[in-house]
UniProtKB/TrEMBL annotation:
Name this polypeptide is given: Carbon-nitrogen hydrolase
Region (Disordered): 84-104
Keyword set includes Hydrolase: yes
Record-annotated CN hydrolase domain positions: 31-290
UniProt source species: Sphaerosporella brunnea
Molecular function per GO: omega-amidase activity
Organism phylogeny: Eukaryota, Fungi, Dikarya, Ascomycota, Pezizomycotina
GO biological process, alphabetically ordered: asparagine metabolic process; glutamine metabolic process; oxaloacetate metabolic process
GO cellular component: mitochondrion
Family named by the database record: Belongs to the carbon-nitrogen hydrolase superfamily. NIT1/NIT2 family.
Length: 322
């Protein structure tokens, strides 16, 4: 039953037209990727303005794809999500609500268009007007400012480590129900949000459907950040022989709220950290070379050695080349 559900979801989400991979590999041309490790506060408009300024700098540095962190337009906390949430369009219903209702959407769309970049716009709290449900949502824009993808965080961050950290997103949020794969002229990439990185399936599904990278806006904390942030990024990269990008807010030890870990990073398809930020506001810029995925997969050919006769293929494309 579980297997059937996954396969159905994956097939529904990744239509056949998205299934081919170029003979040259999943990254079709050189790509400059920039992660903005942003300092955020409680003023939504100020957060957006700061994000716009930093994205402009990334574009000036030649970035093709720019990534913002999880919950970059609000403080991170269940008490804040309802107050900051906005209705957002979807691929199925692309007409956006008015600017007064969805200011973040309009500013981010204009931003990607102004700088002619692909923008993985971190995540923001979303209100679904028809159900009144709230989601933690990443919008992905094309250089024309159109919506290319929308990822609703699938795995909600519900943890309790006594004496260290308790967080329960499910008190107010609903989990998304689809993996996300975005098609661009560079090739395809998958998107997950923060806690999603702990679940290898989303990255496996994306990689086996032809992705060259997984991009995770995230906001780990001072307990699980040192434990697992880098380990998980490297694990997803080496499992799938793809690039992995993790983009965090800056660490703010002076505030009174949730303290994000920082250390945004890009990991290569060999699982090596190529570049990593510290705790402060920063920008990580990395050139992704098209030959890297091909080279790593040809040297260690796990992508062709899988045994789907022994275990199921969660991507629903057994026999695929990734
Ligand atoms: O998985 C973790 O340790 C942190 C996850 C998290 O902070 C989040 O999902 O927002």
């Amino acid at each position: 039953m579980f297997r059937r559900l996954i396969n159905t979801t994956a097939k529904a989400f990744f239509p056949a037209r998205n299934m081919s991979t170029s003979p040259s590999g999943p990254l079709l041309k050189p790509c400059k990727l920039a992660l903005i490790q942003l300092k955020t506060g409680s003023d939504k408009s100020a957060n957006l303005t700061r994000a716009c300024e930093k994205v402009a700098l990334a574009a000036k540095a030649g970035a093709d794809i720019v990534v913002l962190p999880e919950c970059f337009n609000s403080p991170y906390g269940t008490e804040h999500f309802p107050k900051y949430a906005e209705p957002l369009p979807s691929l199925e219903k692309p007409t956006p609500p008015d600017e007064s209702e969805a200011p973040s959407y309009h500013r981010l769309s204009a931003l990607s268009k102004e700088h002619n970049i692909h923008l993985v716009a971190g995540s923001i709290p979303e209100l679904e007007p028809s159900t009144k449900k709230l989601y933690n949502t990443s919008l992905i824009f094309s250089p024309a400012g159109t919506l290319l993808g929308k990822h609703r965080k699938v795995h909600l961050f519900d943890i309790d480590i006594p004496g260290k950290i308790r967080f329960k997103e499910s008190e107010v949020l609903t989990g998304g129900s689809e993996p996300t794969l975005v098609d661009t002229p560079f090739g395809k990439f998958g998107v997950g949000i923060c806690y999603d990185v702990r679940f290898p399936e989303l990255a496996m599904i994306a990689a086996r459907r032809g992705a060259f990278a997984m991009i995770y806006p995230g906001a780990f904390n001072m307990t699980t950040g040192p434990l697992h942030w880098e380990l998980l990024a490297r694990a997803r990269a080496v499992d799938n022989q793809v690039w992995v990008a993790m983009c965090s807010p800056a660490r703010d030890l002076e505030g009174t709220g949730y303290v994000a870990f920082g250390e945004s990073m890009v990991v290569d398809p060999n699982g090596l950290v190529v570049k990593k930020a510290g705790a402060e506001e920063d920008m990580v810029v990395v050139d992704l070379a098209p030959e890297k995925v091909v080279e790593v997969r040809s040297g260690i050919p796990v992508t062709t050695q899988r045994r789907f006769d022994v275990y199921p293929d969660v991507s629903g494309v057994a026999g695929s080349s990734a």
